[in-house]
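To the team - protoporphyrin IX containing FE complex, inputs and output below.
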Amino acid sequence: MIDFITSSVLLFGSSEATIQLPEGLAKALIAAHSGWRYIILILLVMAIIYGKQTASGKKPFEGGTKKMGMFTMIAVDIQLLGGLVLYFFFMASQTMFKMGKLKDQMGISEFRNIAVEHAIGMLIALVLIHIGYSKAKKALNDTEAGKKQYVFYLIALIVILLSIPWPFLHPERGWF
Ligand code: HEM
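Output:
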């Protein structure tokens, strides 16, 4: 704790100091953020399938389809909260909030992938899901509502799949 406070105080005064999450907490948060991807992917696929069925008139929007859209949105919002905490500490440890260090780090693909591509891609996906949910709720009929959920959530799924740092593209990352 003392270390944590000391390094926070020194943050802006030294090129060496930074702030860090306690190790156990950092590991738990990364593991939760990493594993939560599968919950999001399953919910997204279900919301898309339900949306498609509603769009083709096989299911009403109220009930399963709307609930699945809402659960997906909540799961992504939870991921954003964890992601923002991780982002702050990730940037602190990699750049010490110094412009010069940030410029140097931008040349390293492992850093750029998380700091720019991952964060921006996921924020775009989150906005798409919120727009899709709100448009589906305001739609004039069930077919239209199902179509909105289907289209917006499908695009969000593609953006998320492209923004996840998969281990086959980033060997330093894991499956869980
Ligand atoms: C649908 C949303 C998201 C998904 C599915 C997701 C998924 C992931 C995955 C799979 C990892 C790799 C974890 C590992 O290597 O063990 C990761 C890392 C990370 N994510 Fe996300 N993420 C999402 C949103 C966000 C957002 C919105 C932010 C920040 C604005 C963010 C910030 C981070 C950071 C900083 C790391 C690196 C953590 C570290 O190694 O220190 N994520 N994310």
